Recover the amino acids of this structure.
């Protein structure tokens, strides 16, 4: 498994998140839960923006977005990590892959993967919203 990371510190991937991505033969973008939840809201409000399965790993407070294979090679969004998977493993099932994790948007109710360009924009907007909210305190 190869990882492409931004220059900012990232939350490590949990085994639940890695297992889900490997099972889907997709790459996996993980972000802190707060930014990820904002991005999910942004993606759901977007007109025609398709979203793939999203895994919430409560133990590490991260969200994982399944993206098309090959995304990790050029992923550079600060505060996130994109892990390349090799496609080995079982197919995604409706049940969470590991105890302590859960699907925010389960397979079968979502597209196969989230468009990386759309996700990049949503994560950027989410980061700006969080920064603005935190500066008002």
């Amino acid at each position: 498994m190869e990882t492409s990371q931004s220059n900012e510190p990232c939350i490590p991937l949990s085994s639940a998140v890695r297992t889900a991505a490997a099972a889907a033969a997709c790459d996996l973008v993980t972000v802190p839960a707060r930014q990820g939840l904002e991005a999910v809201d942004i993606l759901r409000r977007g007109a025609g923006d398709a979203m793939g399965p999203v895994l919430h790993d409560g133990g590490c407070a991260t969200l994982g977005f399944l993206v098309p294979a090959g995304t990790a090679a050029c992923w550079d969004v600060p505060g996130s990590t994109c892990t390349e998977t090799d496609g080995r493993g079982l197919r995604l099932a409706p049940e969470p892959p590991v105890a302590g994790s859960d699907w925010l948007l389960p397979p079968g109710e979502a597209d196969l993967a989230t468009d990386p360009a759309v996700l990049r924009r949503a994560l950027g907007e989410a980061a700006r919203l969080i920064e603005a909210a935190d500066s008002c305190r």
Summary: The beta strands are 2-5, 27-32, 54-57, 62-67, 81-84, 101-105. The chain has a mean pLDDT of 77. The CA atoms of residues 93 and 99 lie 14 Å apart. The two ends are 41 Å apart (CA to CA).
